[in-house]
Amino acid sequence: MADESTWRQCNICKTPIAYQAKYYVCSVSTCNRKRTGLIFCSMPCFDAHLPMMRHRDAWAEEERAPTREQALAAERAEQEQEAAEQRSPGSAGDAAAPVRRMASAPVDTSDPEVLVVVSKLKKFIKTTSGMNTSDTVFPVLSKHLRELSVAALRQAAAEGRKTVLDRDFIAVLRPGKDAG
Ligand SMILES: [Zn+2]
Ligand SMILES: [Zn+2]
């Protein structure tokens, strides 16, 4: 059954999952342990395990099976893929750029890339309220996150730091107040 291109099998329907194929894992930690974790070939198979495991709150996370050459090579491939997907100039390149430069340069916060995990947020809204979530929500939230991030990194830069801290976001979110 398992030929050379098979990485593992779907835990529900036993469909072979090939190297570099898309698959799904469960958000619940008891289901997604690295070695013994459940993997699913499709959303229907993911849905099928929910009653079996009596989950109250779980969502599917999309994963990609590794190449044959171990995790390192797979990791690199994923990074390259991510880089190719977010071809937008600015996001990837500027992330490594010095904070000083980012703080003084005009920052384009209209970058259309979605920064939130769509499936997780949809799941949260669904399980909380039973409501669906329009896809038009995510660009709006992403824009908000970008604007918050820029404000926070400017705050960090103003204090001479090269790391954005939680308190930078807290300050941006609650001006004039502290966390406590
Ligand atoms: Zn399956
Ligand atoms: Zn699960």
Give the tags:
180 residues; mainly alpha; Histone, subunit A; two-stranded antiparallel sheet; two-stranded antiparallel ribbon; 7 helices; 4 strands; binds zinc ion
What does this structure look like?
The structure is a single chain. It is globular and about 55 Å long. Helices cover 45% and strands 9% of the residues. It has helices at residues 43-53, 70-85, 91-96, 99-104, 118-129, 137-158, 166-173, and strands at 6-9, 16-18, 22-26, 60-64. The chain starts with 5 loop residues before the first strand and ends in a 7-residue tail after the last helix. The strands form 2 sheets. The chain has a two-stranded antiparallel ribbon with strand order 1-2. The chain has a two-stranded antiparallel sheet with strand order 3-4. A hairpin with a 6-residue loop joins strand 1 (6-9) and strand 2 (16-18). The protein is built from 7 helices and 4 strands. Helix 6 packs across helix 7. It folds into 2 domains: 6-77, no CATH class; 89-173, Histone, subunit A. The chain has 180 residues and is mainly alpha-helical. Mean pLDDT is 78; it is low at 90-94 and 97-105. The chain binds zinc ion (2 copies). One zinc ion is lined by residues 10, 12-13, 15, 40-42, 45.
Strand order in space, largest sheet: 1-2
How much of the sequence lies in strands comes to 5-15%
- Stated plainly, the CATH topology of the largest domain is called Histone, subunit A
H and E order: EEEHEHHHHHH
Radius of gyration (CA) equals 20 Å
Helical coverage, percent range? 40-55%
The biggest beta sheet is recorded as: 2 strands, antiparallel
Low-pLDDT segments, ≥5 res: 90-94, 97-105
* Overall pLDDT metric: 78
The coarse silhouette is globular
Class from helix and strand fractions = mainly alpha
Number of strands: 4
Q: What is the first-to-last residue Cα distance?
A: 58 Å
Counting H and I runs of at least 4 residues, what is the number of helices? 7
Number of domains: 2
CATH class of the largest domain: Mainly Alpha
**CATH structural architecture of the largest domain:** Orthogonal Bundle
Say which molecules are bound, naming each kind only once. zinc ion
